[in-house]
Design a protein that fits this description.
It is built from eleven helices and seven strands. The chain is an alpha+beta fold. It folds into two domains: about 110 residues, Orthogonal Bundle (Arc Repressor Mutant, subunit A); about 160 residues, Tetratricopeptide repeat domain (Serine Threonine Protein Phosphatase 5, Tetratricopeptide repeat, Alpha Horseshoe), CATH 1.25.40.10. InterPro entries: AfsR-DnrI-RedD_regulator (IPR051677), BTAD (IPR005158), Sig_transdc_resp-reg_C-effctor (IPR016032), TPR-like_helical_dom_sf (IPR011990), WH-like_DNA-bd_sf (IPR036388).
């Protein structure tokens, strides 16, 4: 039975955090990358019992240590001691025959799991897509466990989730464009760029949103700064679709300037007639 006393809240997008009864620990509190990796792996697999050999391989696969099972026992002891000290939890991690697991008496609420559910719902959606897009985008606060560097499994998951996020942002932007919700489209792009400032597609969404709002000079400035950024950081030139958009913007700016010149000329002629 789920109660407020047995529910824990976990975030893994951007950085790890574990919340229980209004108290929070994170990777800085834990002060050990190995401890964070062990805890997050247990949490990600909280619905099954994990053999000690699997956990040891996950932690030390590329390292040569004499007694990985003994090292694992020591790490589990440290994790349990931390949970006891910070939350008074003495039963969160259980021990079986050569295996460890999360106590099923606790209810796990995790941003990654919610993201997966939301993504599946979007795939099968027949209406209500806007709310699902908003929920998924809100859940993704940054790359998966960004504080852990050089771990192949984590980097693989990070790339997987980031690809889904970017794809869903593009889809939602297209939906907003179809509905002519250009201000919301602009907000979406700006927020996404804060998460990934080297993704050209996000800048194209932003420039399109500004273009449709007739903010041509702003759109031109974003195009110019974007092309400079991407060339300096990645050595790439703007895509054809971005160049085509740039040409449309230049045309609008030119026509605006022509209109201004015509108005100025009319004012001069009126003044001369007086």
């Amino acid at each position: 039975m789920e109660t407020a006393d047995n529910k824990v809240f976990i975030t893994m997008f951007h950085k790890f955090s574990f919340k229980y009864r209004n108290k929070v620990i994170d990777s800085e509190t834990m002060k050990s990358e190995k401890l964070v990796k062990l805890f997050t792996y247990l949490l990600m697999n909280h619905q099954r019992s994990l053999p000690s050999s699997e956990l040891a391989d996950m932690l030390w696969y590329f390292e040569d240590i004499d007694n990985p099972i003994g090292a694992l026992k020591n790490l589990v002891y440290r994790l349990r001691a931390l949970l006891k000290k910070e939350f008074g939890m003495s039963d969160f991690i259980t021990t079986g025959k050569g295996a460890y697991s999360i106590n099923p008496a606790y209810t796990i609420s995790m941003d990654v799991s919610d993201f997966d559910i939301c993504n599946n719902d979007l795939t099968n959606a027949q209406g209500n897509e806007a709310e699902l897009y908003q929920r998924l985008i809100q859940l993704y606060r940054g790359k998966f466990l960004s504080e852990i560097k050089g771990d192949h499994n984590i980097l693989s998951k990070s790339a997987y989730y980031h690809s889904i996020y970017i794809g869903r942002v593009i889809e939602y932007a297209n939906l907003l464009e179809e509905n002519k919700e250009y201000a919301e489209m602009e907000r979406l792009a700006r927020n996404a760029i804060e998460i990934d400032d080297l993704e050209e597609d996000l800048y194209e969404i932003l420039i399109r949103a500004l273009y449709f709002q007739k903010q041509y000079k702003k759109a031109y400035e974003v195009y110019r700064s974007t092309t400079e950024l991407l060339y300096e950081a990645l050595g790439i030139k703007p895509s054809k679709s971005l160049q085509d958009l740039h040409n449309l913007i230049k045309k609008e700016i030119h026509e605006e300037n022509v209109d201004i010149l015509e108005v100025q000329q009319e004012l001069i002629e009126e003044e001369e007639e007086k």
